[in-house]
């Protein structure tokens, strides 16, 4: 790291107008060309810190102390006019959702040209066009006129995200802040976006702060990692400290928790699935504290098995644990290898009999939007009873369409479906009520799938009474039983979806399906937007339900999750299943070139 940091953050504090602090004395340094991965659970303060680097605090909050210096410029000391010029020219920003960050009414070329005109007014004509072309080339995008004339909605999600990256780097900023830019992208698109970020930082000498809840992404991109919890940075270290090259933990996982010293960091690593090794992700017990109920002393103490009276009374300060390795913990783990086995356990792979009759079967299924656009091409799939079957592929491969066809959402479908050996109608409205109950679908976005005006109790009681015709008392009892099955407290029944965390909402969505007593649960990307600990809790839940006899079809683009929990995997590409088999066989020795590209991209995210 440079002896003259490009970014220096000291004692940064952000508080709500009502009093509680969101950030508490955060410090961070970053050299030219260096990328730091900022990780932690939802609510840890990552995005608050990221936006504070631009001199911004969200509505209802304010920056109350500390300093942010970028390239010798005191960002927090700038006037409003100077700050507007600095945002983009000095500090670039890449938002999580390009669909909302790009102007839908302007062509891509117009938006790029405006960025040059505002922040580099000396460039005009051919010189400006050359800079735009160079930024697009560096981001892995075409620079021809046909592409520049497109509107954002005419681009794929990965292309939109790389346009944002080109916009961020175009003015030549010293620092670029990237807020979860690959969360919803499939593995190959994600790999291309990360490569663009890495190359542009290296070639242009810009530093970058990369916010993510995905440790696999950070492992493939960052030079250093900063771990946040409850508004504080609890551990920082070079990437090699957390993931030493060529080392193996006691369970056979490469670098498993090898250098992490803070118990929270080790918990995050244990919760992260690994595409290379089949192991059960372990969620961190308990919940992160709310802003208004942070405990005295170490905020992680209520969830930490190592906590004692000192931890509950005194906030720990950062201490050095090695070269550039700082940890804020009263009792940092001294010998990490001895604790790896406590948090990582092998997960056995269930092998359904090859001769067993599939519970749910699709044969030669095709699906079209209207008559012109075909999405599925004669797809066949077997879901064996009690199996955990993963369906993977890039965005647009047809995964969700196939899942919805199996669930009975209908459309222009040809081919045949069967359940337990009997014909199954394509349209759910043509299926008997008993079969509609038996096959349940969990949507990717629980907030949109749950009625925001109803309490959790009402959301769960409605299908119970509709399907089973039981009394209100019995419906209430079954609703509470369902909450218990998904590890939610009974008092959550009184809450509405907007009052819950993302992980809690997702478990409520699973509980709503479970009250129907299904035989098949179809889950559509239900962990893609969750942080690793909440994701681990949801996967633990599904694994437990599978052991109770539930059949699960799990749609995902995360091959680490597939390795962790799936018995079988089917790979989709351009509306066709190109490979199918036991999970270990497919991921360790893929036969199809497309599958090999997915596995290579996934392994690259954790080995680059």
Would you identify the regions where 5 or more consecutive residues have pLDDT less than 50? 246-257, 336-348
CATH topology assignment of the domain at 360-607: Rossmann fold
Mean pLDDT level = 87
CATH class of the domain at 360-607: Alpha Beta
Task: Give a written overview of the molecule.
The structure is a single chain. By secondary structure, the chain is an alpha/beta fold. Among the domains are: 100 residues, no CATH class; 248 residues, P-loop containing nucleotide triphosphate hydrolases (Rossmann fold), CATH 3.40.50.300. It contains 23 helices and 24 strands. The protein has an eight-stranded mixed β-sheet with strand order 6-7-8-3-9-10-13-12, sandwiched between helices. A six-stranded mixed β-sheet has the order 20-21-22-17-23-24, sandwiched between helices. A four-stranded antiparallel β-sheet has the order 2-1-4-5, covered by helices on one side. Helix 7 packs parallel to helix 8. The two termini are 19 Å apart. 49% of the residues are buried. About 4% of the residues have low confidence.
